[in-house]
């Protein structure tokens, strides 16, 4: 879970007695920052929620000294000023041990305060990384990447390979549900850029670098426009809530498939927001609404993962499926689609899937049918494995892709569960997946 330092946040305003904390203009969103929820509250919330805190440092309006103080406040163990301030404010004698620290936010963007060229950002990040590691050598630093397929990312990775261990990436029915094709191609390019950077800098002089997929979302319809309009319109996004339909639900499921398929290189993926904006959860004074996009979260977080110290195993899945041949966003995905010369060329297959071994005796598989009109009989070949008893199928479907959950009708789109029995000695399952729907199978497995 990340807290913004971004390019304008003053973290020191958010510590100490709440009644003494100043209100400040919130420059990124044209609103106000109350500072009632600061570093200490954030750490307590993360501990209560059993999630790892991730702090993004302000490389826009604040200096390196401010970042050094923040790391000392959170992780300092000595008899020093900011470590003692933490003890005074929170009563926490032990350090917070915040592991993940981001080096700025969207430093490439013209909307960012003190935005930089790739060369300028690389040099500044090198200086910051060196100093931050002197305060706490154990921290993991995350560079401010873009989308994985441009010269900004190549420049930063070449310059920061010796300093960082994460590189941050950002990010109509068919255009939305196939939006993940560009994201996955960006992941693959970034993997190659990481390998090149480590080779040129010397593998023995660099640590393995993973991708932190920050501020991703499934492509909200209004947000993609607002990114290019005048800053005065940013206030609108704060005041308006997105209401999602079944199309958004399927797009979200395909995003999670990308993360699982690429789990070997993606170490962290943080959705943009979780409640009351472009989010899967909306709240009212006496009610909580689970939007359609909540249910992919639910289905992937149950049975598709285990504890951090005992993770599930992502499987390499081969999919033989017809492909979508229409317009894509971005358009270059469609241009690459017909190139059969490389195995990792985008295919835009109607059937999108991922699979994991949860344990040596249980597996789970997600199947998303992105076709608007046609259902599919999906044959799953377990390649030498079979099951000894029944398996569960969790499905999400509605006849209309415009189906939406509301406070008045909160269960229009939800999860249905059914149970099926294995056929003895079979290593294949046939699953009927309706048009524009997705299913999750959870099955006991054993080798034949």
Automatic annotation (TrEMBL):
It comes from the Eukaryota. The keyword Hydrolase applies. Its EC number is 3.2.1.55. Keywords: Carbohydrate metabolism, Glycosidase, Hydrolase. SUPFAM superfamilies: (Trans)glycosidases, Glycosyl hydrolase domain. It catalyses: Hydrolysis of terminal non-reducing alpha-L-arabinofuranoside residues in alpha-L-arabinosides. Residues 214-437 form the Alpha-L-arabinofuranosidase C-terminal domain. Pathway: Glycan metabolism; L-arabinan degradation. InterPro entries: Alpha-L-AF_C, ASD1_cat, GH, Glyco_hydro_b. Alpha-L-arabinofuranosidase involved in the degradation of arabinoxylan, a major component of plant hemicellulose. Acts only on small linear 1,5-alpha-linked L-arabinofuranosyl oligosaccharides. Belongs to the glycosyl hydrolase 51 family. This is non-reducing end alpha-L-arabinofuranosidase.
């Amino acid at each position: 879970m990340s807290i913004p330092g971004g390019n304008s946040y003053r973290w020191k305003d958010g510590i100490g007695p709440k009644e003494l904390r100043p209100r400040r203009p919130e420059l990124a969103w044209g609103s106000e920052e109350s500072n009632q929820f600061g570093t200490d509250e954030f750490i307590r919330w993360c501990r209560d929620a059993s999630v790892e805190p991730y702090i993004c440092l302000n490389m826009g309006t604040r200096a390196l000294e401010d970042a050094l103080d923040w790391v000392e406040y959170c992780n300092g163990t000595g008899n020093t000023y900011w470590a003692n301030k933490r003890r005074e404010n929170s009563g926490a004698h032990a350090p917070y041990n915040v592991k993940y620290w981001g080096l700025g936010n969207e430093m490439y963007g013209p909307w960012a305060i003190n935005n930089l060229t790739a060369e300028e950002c690389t040099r500044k990040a090198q200086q910051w990384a060196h100093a931050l590691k002197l305060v706490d050598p154990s921290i993991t630093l995350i560079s401010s990447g873009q989308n994985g397929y441009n010269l900004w990312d190549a420049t930063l990775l070449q310059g920061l390979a010796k300093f960082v261990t994460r590189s941050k990436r950002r990010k109509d029915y068919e255009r939305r549900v196939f939006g993940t094709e560009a994201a996955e191609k960006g992941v693959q390019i970034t993997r190659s850029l990481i390998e090149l950077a480590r080779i040129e800098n010397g593998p023995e002089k660099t640590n393995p670098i993973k991708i932190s997929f920050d501020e991703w979302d499934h492509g909200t319809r209004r947000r993609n426009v607002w990114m290019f309009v005048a800053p005065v319109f940013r206030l609108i996004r704060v005041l308006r809530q997105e209401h999602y339909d079944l199309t958004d639900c399927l797009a979200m499921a395909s995003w999670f498939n990308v993360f699982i398929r690429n789990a070997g290189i993606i170490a962290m993926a943080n959705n943009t927001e979780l409640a009351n904006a472009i989010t899967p959860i909306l709240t009212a004074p006496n009610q909580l609404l689970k939007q359609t996009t909540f249910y992919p979260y639910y289905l992937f977080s149950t049975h598709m993962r285990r504890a951090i110290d005992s993770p599930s195993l992502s499987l390499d899945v081969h999919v033989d499926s017809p492909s979508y041949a229409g317009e894509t966003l971005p358009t270059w995905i469609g241009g690459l689609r017909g190139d059969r010369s490389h195995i990792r060329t985008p295919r835009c297959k109607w059937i999108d899937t991922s699979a994991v071994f949860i344990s040596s005796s249980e597996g789970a598989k997600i199947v998303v049918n992105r076709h608007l009109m046609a259902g599919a009989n999906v044959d799953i070949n377990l390649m030498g494995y079979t099951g000894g008893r029944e398996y569960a199928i969790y499905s999400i479907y509605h006849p209309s892709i415009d189906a939406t959950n509301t406070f008045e009708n909160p269960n229009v789109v939800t999860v249905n569960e059914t149970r099926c029995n294995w056929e003895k000695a079979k290593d294949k399952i046939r699953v009927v997946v309706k048009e524009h729907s997705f299913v999750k199978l959870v099955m006991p497995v054993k080798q034949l």
